[in-house]
Amino acid sequence: MELLDLYDDNGLPTGKTIERGSKFTAGNIMLSIVFIKNSKEEYLIQKTSKEKQNNYSSTGGHVIHSENGLTTIVREVQEELGLTIDPNEFKKIGLIKNPTKPCLINLYLLNKDIDIKSLKLQKSEVEQVMWLKKQDILKLIDKDEFLSSHGYLFKNYIIK
Predict the structure, then answer these.
(1) Letter string b/e over residues 58-89, b meaning 16 or more CB atoms within 10 A of that residue's CB
(2) Could you tell me the CATH superfamily of domain 3-158?
(3) Rg of the Cα trace of the chain?
(4) Residue pLDDT, tens place only, 3-40
(5) Which residues contact 132 (CB under 8 A, 6 or more apart)?
(6) Domain residue spans in the chain?
(7) pLDDT tens-digit profile of 110-124?
(8) What's the angle, vertex CA 154, arms to CA 118 and CA 19, rounded to 5?
(9) CA–CA gap between residue 85 and residue 75 (Å, rounded)
């Protein structure tokens, strides 16, 4: 059982927690998402596992009870990609309110050249990873093959 804290629209904890997947009527859950960009202006994109609907996305996940956005993204990058990254390497873009769901998203950018052959993917979450140029990601978004919330962040905050 994974517990999630609920937050107000400003990102302040409400003092309430819920079980992940539970319905709630007030407040927001919180996620952390990172776009990793290399020196060739490519982004590290993952194709999620069949259990996770086989979409393309960036790396990220839920901020669990008593974590903050930064500790979550460090944990998620470690879990999903097998990478240990110094927290100081992440640049926070902002805390964004999801326009369609009761959810706040800590958005980060990581500028780093990574050899994808050296990654240890979490097979239950990630089927494969690849470096893609901006225009290739936009095509995936247009074809509705990219996770919609990640596509929204990419178009409105990463490449704006």
Answers:
(1) bbbbbbbeebebbebbbebbebbbebebeeee
(2) Nucleoside Triphosphate Pyrophosphohydrolase (3.90.79.10)
(3) 15
(4) 999 999 999 999 999 999 999 989 999 999 999 999 99
(5) 42, 43, 45, 140
(6) 3-158
(7) 999 999 999 999 999
(8) 80
(9) 9
> Residue 48, Cβ neighbours under 10 Å: how many?
18
The predicted model scores a pTM of 0.95
Q: How far is CA 151 from CA 12, 23, 55, 136, 143, in A?
A: 25, 25, 11, 12, 11
CA 41 to chain centre: 19
Let me know: does 98 contact 150? Beta carbons within 8 Å: no
Question: In the structure encoding, which two tokens stand for residue 144, read together?
Answer: 């509705």
C-alpha closest to that of 108 among 17, 36, 15, 4: 36
Residue count (the chain): 160
Encoded tokens for 12? 């302040």
In sequence order, which ranges of the chain are alpha helices (DSSP H)? 69-81, 134-142, 148-153
